[in-house]
């Protein structure tokens, strides 16, 4: 099941034009990913301490569809797109009500203590798989 994380837009998130500054969408989805993994049962501190494994962003493909503004209430929706041996592709969208403002396809890779890609442990794989796919949307993010 996809994970939802609420975000309110603050003054510090906006630019001179009054729109949410483009880089802040990446901050919003980072928080959404962290919350999704935590609520799915992945303790990233324990994963690092016990297995020497951390997740690193390898690739991002982003689309901005419409701006967000000061005091908007947004939802960051995170779902699993694909799960590989050492990587996961996450589909993340930012919504204001029924309007999709932003979409990112984010590939994260499990990195071992040696700095190389390593297989995602089974417990973490099961937790990621539980995020499930995004439903009811097409490839344009709407």
UniProtKB/TrEMBL annotation:
Keyword Hydrolase: yes
Keyword flag Hydrolase: yes
Pfam families referenced in this protein's UniProt entry, alphabetically: 4HBT
Residues annotated as domain Thioesterase: 18-97
One MF annotation (Gene Ontology) recorded for this entry: fatty acyl-CoA hydrolase activity
Keywords, alphabetical: Hydrolase
Domain of life: Bacteria
Family (UniProt): Belongs to the 4-hydroxybenzoyl-CoA thioesterase family.
Classification via PANTHER family: 4-HYDROXYBENZOYL-COA THIOESTERASE FAMILY MEMBER, ACYL-COA THIOESTER HYDROLASE YBGC
Protein name (Swiss-Prot/TrEMBL): Tol-pal system-associated acyl-CoA thioesterase
Organism field: Amaricoccus solimangrovi
């Amino acid at each position: 099941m996809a994970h939802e994380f609420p975000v309110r837009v603050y003054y510090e998130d906006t630019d001179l034009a009054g729109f949410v500054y483009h880089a802040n969408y990446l901050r919003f989805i980072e928080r959404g990913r962290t919350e999704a993994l935590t609520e799915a049962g992945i303790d990233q501190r324990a994963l690092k301490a016990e297995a020497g494994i951390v997740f690193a962003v390898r690739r991002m493909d982003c689309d901005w569809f419409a701006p967000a503004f000061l005091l908007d209430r947004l939802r960051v929706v995170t779902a699993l797109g694909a799960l590989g041996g050492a990587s996961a592709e996450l589909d993340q969208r930012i919504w204001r009500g029924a309007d999709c403002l932003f979409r990112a396809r984010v590939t994260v890779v499990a990195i071992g203590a040696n700095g190389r890609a390593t297989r995602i442990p089974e417990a973490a794989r099961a937790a990621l798989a539980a995020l499930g796919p995004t439903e009811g949307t097409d490839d344009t993010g709407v």
